[in-house]
Amino acid sequence: xxxxxxxxxxxxxxxxxxxxxxxxxxxxxxxxxxxxxxxxxxxxxxxxxxxxxxxxxxxxxxxxxxxxxxxxxxxxxxxxxxxxxxxxxxxxxxxxxxxxxxxxxxxxxxxxxxxxxxxxxxxxxxxxxxxxxxxxxxxxxxxxxxxxxxxxxxxxxxxxxxxxxxxxxxxxxxxxxxxxxxxxxxxxxxxxxxxxxxxxxxxxxxxxxxxxxxxxxxxx
Length: 220
Ligand SMILES: CCCCCCCC/C=C\CCCCCCCC(=O)SCCNC(=O)CCNC(=O)[C@H](O)C(C)(C)COP(=O)(O)OP(=O)(O)OC[C@H]1O[C@@H](n2cnc3c(N)ncnc32)[C@H](O)[C@@H]1OP(=O)(O)O
Hints:
3-stranded mixed sheet, HotDog_dom_sf, 30% strand, alpha+beta, binds ligand 3VV, 6-stranded antiparallel sheet, Thioestr_dom, 26% helix, apoptosis, 9 strands
């Protein structure tokens, strides 16, 4: 197996695949604020014990807003280009369910490029609950999938997850800063082997081994 974690200079431009690209810093502040507000709304709706009249009023207001916002929608597959801490660019779908900038269903996860991979911190509320007070195992896998995919993309080039094995070592708590990290371990042709971890209070709660397959490019 060849070990080569040097960044690949040639990166696919999503525009070449017919996908629109939005620059991260061109997303209006009003939209960022709305995303944050709706994230809080999801948490509020999930946990409310408000009376029926209040619920009916909120329901009508939300439905009216849906109609207004749906009057102008982005294309499915719209990508966002963002700069990861050290100046490295990353493309991702703007609605990516784990890290999409405009997706209120995505936890506010910003991964930064570090030597050999990525890392970031996220705190999850009850929207991501599985067992009482704990993060759902599917979301733990989703966070790790995003981290290994992102590490592979910035250290080599973008790809798809072919295999993801998750070990759940300890319960992962809600309302606690979680450190997410991933490192590229080795590469072999289009195969990229990546490991990932989630830590709470410095202890590993979940870890993953993944195989990413890079999107084929003109490299023989
Ligand atoms: C277009 C846009 C351009 C811009 C791009 C920007 C993108 C964003 C970038 C960055 C952000 C990153 C954040 C994302 C994170 C989340 C990722 C996900 O959730 S991905 C969704 C879940 N995964 C799937 O749905 C995959 C479904 N499977 C497939 O599509 C195929 O099976 C695929 C692509 C994985 C492989 O298919 P093949 O036809 O391309 O490749 P073959 O020729 O079969 O395999 C190549 C090598 O890999 C091995 N391989 C393939 N699959 C394997 C497996 N499951 N286990 C072991 N080896 C496998 C093969 O044995 C072969 O190895 P040998 O080079 O011959 O040694």
